[in-house]
Write a structure and sequence with these properties.
Largest sheet: 7 strands, parallel
Radius of gyration: 26 Å
Number of helices: 17
Shape: globular
Number of strands: 23
Amino acid sequence: MKILIPTKLDKSAAAALTAAGYEVVQDDTTPLEELVAAHADAAGLIVRSEKVPAAIIDRMPALKCVIRAGAGYDNIDYVYARTKGIDVMNTPGANANAVAEEVVAMVLAAYRYVIPADVTTRAGEWNKKQYMGRELTRKTVGILGLGNIGRMLVKRLQGFECTVLGYDHFLSKQRALNIGATPAELEEIFSTADIISIHVPGGPATKNMVDARLIGMMKDGAMLVNCARYGVVDEEALRAAKAAGKHIIYCTDVHPKDAAAQQPSADVAEVMLPHLGANTKEANKMAAVRAASQMAAYFAEGDTSCVVNAETPGDLNPAHLRMAALLGKLCYHAGGCKPIRKIECTFYNNLRSFRKWFTPWILQGAVPGAEQGLMPAAAEASLREHGIVFKAREPMDDKLYDDSLTLDLFMEEDGEQIKTSVRGMVVDGEPVVSRIDDFNHLYASLTGNTLVLRYADRPGVIATIGQILSQSGINIDNIVAPLDAKSGDSLAVVKTNKPVDDELVELIARAIGAKRAFALSL
């Protein structure tokens, strides 16, 4: 069986696979297209940052497994690979220490003017007075995201006697303290930290997470380090702040594309590197060893525990999986988007036999920024990593629901766990929510623009909601507003033809005295 490694990966991967009896071709100089043409019979492919689009996959009819020797796998068309019956894996955590050390290196380089001092000294200048630096020791460091990299950075800073503040929306306070970071909100970190290092996922949930408001809170002379993903920092806002006279030291290792180009950060970054975070011999070797081990276990033992593009059972309706993700998102917003401490779910009727397959979808729906496409075991591990207890319950015998799912999120608010519960099912092929907390018989579509309002039941409220929406040019497509007799409250679930922004939600909430109000697009 042939394994193709078209990348500059540590030779230990090829050595291990060769020793296990595989034919290995490793070549990092020949273009991938040419290698694929010459080795179309390869059953396994190990890459790092090389692109593996549909066109490459189509040229490898024997391909069964692609492994990304690293954490991110968006360079592989894993969705298309699934349609071809090809499993895609990654090796998360292999690069964590390398990125953490890079952060320390960038901080020290910026504080001690290492780069300009080297350039000018080589040019025959002697600018010792100009390069009066600062020490990292005993500084306050804020870390956004306490995953593998964030936790490793906490350890690396211990020798510098730093005060470490940690922001992670999903970790409990005690778990953060156990890691070695004092839990803090974003506002506290940005207003007090000398150095802020970002280690959150990319994507819509974190786009421009570090915005003008947070940048405006930073102390003069504070440092911002982005070794996460391009787009997490609003560089336009940073540029404006610097132009206005605010002194911020910016270090970045992430760019729109990993390719030669005039990078947009060039005019705002004091230190700028070409995505070197994982670029160490040690990280390369660790990723290589893991990739080889996973590839061998995949073919020899059928081990698919690291697959990120899982194939679900053929008799499981994909609409039920989408329902689980949408219910997770709805429940998270219904509970006020607080840190999740526990997730409990109950599967009814035929869904009971498929419950493990729902875990990845619940994860990606309920936890913003979570990895997508994980296998069930990896999704459970990710939930544990976020400090979330996950439990799949058996239904009560006397509840004869159809193929439906009840999802309960327990979120932390003021030190207490607050439960929010939803139930959903698939009707005519479309996911719907049938219950939110104690409000039953909703049967509202889990697609499109949704406005949810809880209020004391009384005449005229629906008319007020409709009038305010109409004045903003928004039409109501559908509305349900059941009454909870016990509390005397109604819950209006309003489907609209356009998204309802936060300002309009607040306006409606004030007008009707809403006890809960939120809008989202599903």
